[in-house]
Design a protein that fits this description.
In the C-terminal section; belongs to the class-I pyridoxal-phosphate-dependent aminotransferase family. It comes from Pseudoduganella violacea. The protein has helices at residues 2-5, 17-24, 28-40, 88-92, 109-119, 135-146, 161-169, 186-194, 216-227, 266-269, 282-289, 301-311, 314-340, 363-371, 400-416; strands spanning 44-46, 52-54, 73-74, 128-132, 152-157, 173-180, 183-184, 199-202, 233-237, 258-264, 276-280, 353-357, 374-375, 377-378, 390-394. The protein has 15 helices and 15 strands. The strands form 4 sheets. Strands 4-11-10-9-8-5-6-7 form an 8-stranded mixed β-sheet, with helices on both faces. It is an alpha/beta fold. Strand 8, helix 9 (216-227) and strand 9 form a beta-alpha-beta unit. Helix 2 (17-24) packs across helix 3 (28-40) and helix 13 runs parallel beside helix 15. It has 3 domains: 2-54, Winged helix-like DNA-binding domain superfamily/Winged helix DNA-binding domain (Arc Repressor Mutant, subunit A); 73-83 and 316-416, Aspartate Aminotransferase, domain 1 (Alpha-Beta Complex), CATH 3.90.1150; 87-313, Aspartate Aminotransferase, domain 2 (3-Layer(aba) Sandwich).
Amino acid sequence: MLTQTGALTAGQELPTVRDLAATLGVNRNTVSMAYKRLAAAGIAATQGRLGTVIRSQSGPGEQEGALPGSPLADLGSGNPNAAWLPDIGAALVRKPYRARLYGEPPVDPELEAAARHWLAKDCPEHLDINLTHGSVDAIERLLAAHLVAGDKVAVEDPCFISSVNALRAAGLQTVGVAIDAQGMQDEALEEALTQGAQAVIITPRAHNPSGCSLSTARARKLRAVLAKHPHVLVIVDDHFSLLSVTAYQDVIPPAAHRWALIRSVSKMFGPDLRLAFVASDAQTSQRLRLRLAPGTNWVSHLLQDAVAACLSSPEVSEQIAHARDGYARHRGIMAQALARQGIAVASPADGLNLWLPLQQSSQALVLALAQHGWLVRGGESFGLQTPAHGLRITISTITEEKAQAFARLLRQVLDQHQFFQSSGKA
């Protein structure tokens, strides 16, 4: 009621459990339970020793994507290069659409076979295959199948914006796990699981926003940590998959009871082709299928046909290889242009973005660049426990000329605003 009337506003800190219990003359457990219910309902957020604060009730947080009609040069949207997406219509010519009716398998058998061939080598044995409407939809469904509002989920910090929004909308508590150039840190994950995290979301390569990927040694350590917690739900979001120049590193221990590997096609075939493959254990698969059966919310077979046509097309395979090489080239162009100006980005990097660490808020820097015609993404929205000071720079459509111009301007603005860089390592 107080949040609805405006008496309590977003960001306002609530009294400690001890203080409120004393004020009201009730048991501390009663107050603690009330705070948990507020967190589960999405009204408040618990921050450990930092206390409990009122959440914003204004709707979803910052979103990915470009600003429609913006005159700014786009280095902030996180979008793939439209010129490197396949011609889906041409691919579909080889696979004419066949109408399906209620009662047919939710996953086309041909597509399931292709997915199984693709994912089986990177999963524990006895996997099942399901489809969702993209990777974020998969994460939401997986968490809803196993957790309840108020449960803790360990995620990389900084974390992908859409994942942060999905977790908050579900009333789940995020436990940030620090990352470095080799990906999620194993000691930090151990601490998060000790704090009671019931699930963990891991990006094995092309982490957004940092661009880091798991090394073989780090993946081995993470797998060992997770092996000690076999009941934790392990979600691996391999969103860049075939476009990545980094080898996939397996973190799912054989003894894991609940696990899922997600591979979407959004970066390869376009964000509007809303489909992701989910390989998982049998129990998780059964829970997913309760909501993905015919007549409820299955993935359209028209989309499935489009994906199957693309995956089986030699021309599309060449297009994917071309895009993979192109993104790597663009990352190099931008990183080298910045290096010439004495600006170090996090490295090594994979994916559609580069990450420029800063020691202070990026807001003034983002505004100054916008005033000069450049759109970049401030890093603070990616942070969990603490703001992630930095810039995320999307390289999808960069050219040598634009990279040089942007790097010169960025150097100028950094000097004018007396910004200080952090280490170039993620």
